[in-house]
Amino acid sequence: MGQTEKWWKNAVVYQIYPRSFQDSNGDGIGDLPGIIQRLDYLETLGIDAVWLSPVCRSPQDDNGYDISDYQDIDPMFGTLSDMETLIREAGKRGIRIIMDLVLNHTSDEHPWFREALKGRDNPYHDYYVWRDGKEGVLPNDLRACFGGPAWEWVPELGQYYLHQFSVRQPDLNWESPKVRREIYDMILWWMEKGVGGFRLDVIDQIAKEPDRMITNNGPRLHEFIQELSRETFQKGDLITVGEAWGATTELAKRYSNPDGSEFSMVFQFEHIGLDQQEGGEKWDLAPLPFRKLKEVLGKWQTALYGCGWNSLFWNNHDLPRIVSRWGNDCVYRTESAKMLAVLLHGMQGTPYIYQGEELGMTNARYSIEDYRDIELLNMYRERIAKGYPKEQVMESVYAKGRDNARTPMQWDAGPQAGFTDGTPWIKVNPNHQEINAASQVGVEGSVFEFYRKLIVLRKTFPIFADGRFEMLLEDDEEIFAYRREDTESRLLVVCNFFGNTVSRPISKLCGGMDLILTNYGSSADSPSTSCETLRPYEARIYYQHK
Ligand code: GLC
Ligand code: CA
Predict the structure, then answer these.
(1) What is the pLDDT of residue 5?
(2) What is the band of 331 on the pLDDT scale with cuts at 50, 70, 90?
(3) How many angstroms is it from 78 CA to the middle of ligand 1?
(4) What is the pLDDT of residues 8-61, one digit of tens each?
């Protein structure tokens, strides 16, 4: 079947976390005019679309994932007219803007919630999820994703409301047709403004049935999504990507059904959860089981071929930096950042690059006062109160804290990394003196130029989007290798995932093929280095036209 008829199957998406990208007015917070200033950088990189984390009006309890007005821009980020300029200016450079839709909950400052609090018979009351009760006797044991109970008592109403995230993020009641209609109208309004797509925040949590302790994948989930898609997205030519922590390959086939009835694709997190203790939380660290990683990524590649579509990502604003996580952020930072890029971008699906990933930006190690994230700070307090040793809690913060991804973009070696003239809302990583855009753009051998090449390859060879996936050397403890194949060509990707030099019978796999990309540079690939030897984090892509 034709896998390439949709533009987003050949696209590469770049995620911007606006508050940390570029500040234009010295208040220490990134903003829309700042993004506009940096569009040329994005054009140079070669990406097709930008996913903006939320920029709508918000009290910023969860950095914008708590929206108080879906149809206005938060003054901290700019104005609606800045947003229109951004859409237009990006469009001139062939870049579409993807907005983040937070539809599971609103802010407690949203007018709907303010109305809802006024009384049980207020027309907005059933926009949210309420349970009668007594103070101190929770409806049940449901926990919020950011810690503590998922229920909050409102004495004036004698009721609890549901919040799967912070107390300030009350859950919307998708059972109400009025709520759904309001949402559709709002989305159509943004489509009119020319946005190129949407990322749907925690979309698998909208169809909750709290009395049955159901949060993810509720019984009505796909019914709601199909209605949403029919009423909105299907009226345009959009890219839509749902965030679905609870997705299996079977569910993902529904979400990304090629008939277009739901979304273009989902973010699934099976690979992302591998380095934590079984039954534990993400903070309970465990080494990455490498063969399991191959098994999981391979399974997703195979299961969705021809009947769904993958998103490909290592990073986002909720995850630690991949080079620090599964690469090596000291001696082999450049090599391992490139290897991880090859591994990901060689697969079938739409690749997402998170700001700074294209520079090989790393995790940060700050003292606790310098962190800002609500999830991280709640976890810190809870675990310290439970008696965990401070060093252990900090190790979890360094490894998994969301602020690792949220430190300011490193533009140059100057003060505040060129991010702001003022005091940044969160400290810049001191390593911006070595790791920054100014020292990489146009510089041969840089991580940035490598990402650029990968994007060019994807645009040049249709096999990146089309080819069937086959895992090779499945049981190998150090090498991640796979083949892609379509009617016209073959592709071979070989990655040494670790820091040792190893030998493998690569010539058996790459016979007749041309080496089209390597992270050790072509000159280093001199005849004296046999193709059987893979240096630390070495990655190669071979290609053959049949
Ligand atoms: C998603 C977002 C995350 C946010 C949460 C609640 O997981 O990516 O940043 O905190 O939803 O909206
Ligand atoms: Ca600003």
Answers:
(1) 83
(2) very high
(3) 22
(4) 999 999 999 999 999 999 999 999 999 999 999 999 999 999 999 999 999 999
Residue 138 Cα, ligand 1 centroid: separation in angstroms? 24
Nearest bound ligand to the CA of residue 375:
1
| R_g of the chain, CA atoms, integer Å | 23
- Protein residue with its CA nearest to atom 12 in ligand 1: 65
Catalytic residue, from 100, 201, 357, 375: name it. Answer: 201
Structure tokens at 509: 């796999």
Catalytic residue status for 201: yes
C-alpha pair distances (Å), 389 with each of 150, 321, 363, 385, 393:
27, 25, 22, 10, 7
Max Cα-Cα span within the chain: 81
Question: What's the rounded Cα separation, in Å, for the pair 42 and 34?
Answer: 13
What whole-number distance in Å separates Cα of residue 40 and Cα of residue 96?
14
User: Rounded CA gap, 531 and 79, in Å?
Assistant: 55
- Four-residue CA torsion sign, 441, 446, 448, 450: positive
Catalytic residue among 31, 82, 243, 538: 243
211 carries an active-site annotation: no
> Which residues fall within 8 angstroms of residue 380, CB to CB, at 6 or more apart?
368, 371, 393, 397
Q: What is the pTM of this model?
A: 0.97
Ligand 1 atom nearest the C-alpha of 165 is: 6
Q: Which residues pair with 207 in a beta bridge?
A: none
- Give residue 43's pLDDT: 98
3-state secondary structure of 266: strand
